[in-house]
Amino acid sequence: MSDSDVRVAALCGSLRDGSYTRIALEQALSAAERAGATTELLDLREYELPIFDADRDREDAGDAAELAARVRAADTILLGSPMYHGSFSSPLKTALDYCGFDEFEDKTVGLLAVSGGAFPVTALEHMRSVCRALNAWVIPHEAAIPNASAAIDDGEFADPKLETRVTTLGRRAVQYATIEPDPGSFESDQNVGAQGK
How many domains does the chain divide into? Predict the structure, then answer.
C-alpha cells in the first residue's frame, strides 16, 4: 500500500462549536493529507448516537452502523477528546462502544487529548486501554494539549512545539498505517463485549 492509498479517519469526541479538539484533529488530518493520505473527520455532532445498549442492534441505534462502517473503512484512526473528570468524553465512549474488533483489530490508532488545565495524561491512558482491549496498534507518539485556551488562539496554535506534536501525529498516522500488528493482548481475550458488534 502506498501513502496515497492510506485512509485516515479522525473521531472527534468534543461536541462544542469552538472545540479545541476539533481544531487539533483538523491540523493532524492536514498533515496526513500532506503525507499523501485521504482523510475524513468524523464529527460526532453529525451523528445520532443513543446511549449504548447491548440489547439494541447497532442497525437500530441511529447512525451507529454508518459510523462503524466509516471507522472500519479507515486504515488509521485518530481518536481525539477533551479530558472530562480525568478521562475521555462520553460522546467518544459511546461511539467506541458501537464499534468492536471488526473496526479496530490490527488497526493503527493515534491519540490526541486536550485539557483546560494540566496535561490530559489520564484521558490518553484510558483511550490507550480501550484500544488495547480491541487489539489495535496505538502509535507510540501521542499529542497532549494542556491549557487549551492559551495553546490555541483564534483557531491557530500559539505554541509551535505543540503544533509540531500534532502535525507529527498526522504524519505518523500515514507512516504506520500498515505496520505489522502485535499479537493479541490479554485484555482483548477478556473483552467479550466487543464480540459480534
Answer: 1
